[in-house]
Model the fold of this input.
Amino acid sequence: MNKLNSDTPQPETEADTLNARLSAYRQQRAKQRPDFARAYDRLVERLAKLSRGEVGPQVGEPMPLFDLPDETGSLVSLASMLQSGPVVVSINRGHWCPYCKMELRALATAQQRIAKLGARIVSIMPDTAQYTSGYAVQNDLPFPVLSDMDLGYSLALGLIFWVGAEVQQLYQDAGVELEKYQDNQGYFLPMAAKFIVGRDGLIKARQVNVEFRERMEPEAIIAALEALRGA
Done:
């Protein structure tokens, strides 16, 4: 287990919001690793300047289709998932990312409510099946985790970025080996994002987090699905 995620905190109570837990973890880690906190702040500032507003597909636009392998190697397509209802597409940084772990566990807690609204959830991350295999089971995730090989899908969404030399060195020192996890030497990651896609393939709601230490609340996802159902 690498040093970055070895002390990922567990949610304290179901009443806590996801972002309250993420903020508490962020503050805890800033005390333990101020070098990471400063580097992440600089990275987020750089991404905010580069993005200059909204990035990725917008509400009302078609969601680009995907055919990506799950942890067993079976291909999963967005088109097939949409046949049964709306799909919540979660773009995640990797199996090693503690913020993603907390977010996906929060989605797992909300999964039954999401399913009652006729929707399904899928997580997409750039790690190969070697590292996503068993991830859903280990983290009690009742939805598939797909491998975005060489970040091709994230690139199609316009959400790919280079972590930068500073963060790359910190990751290497901490044992976060992106080159092994992704089977390439690029040190690129996707921006954390959520897309709620209707059965018609159009994006109904979305949130792209340049500040990856913040995420879309499950309650906001549920509200978007309820609005879609009532439309």
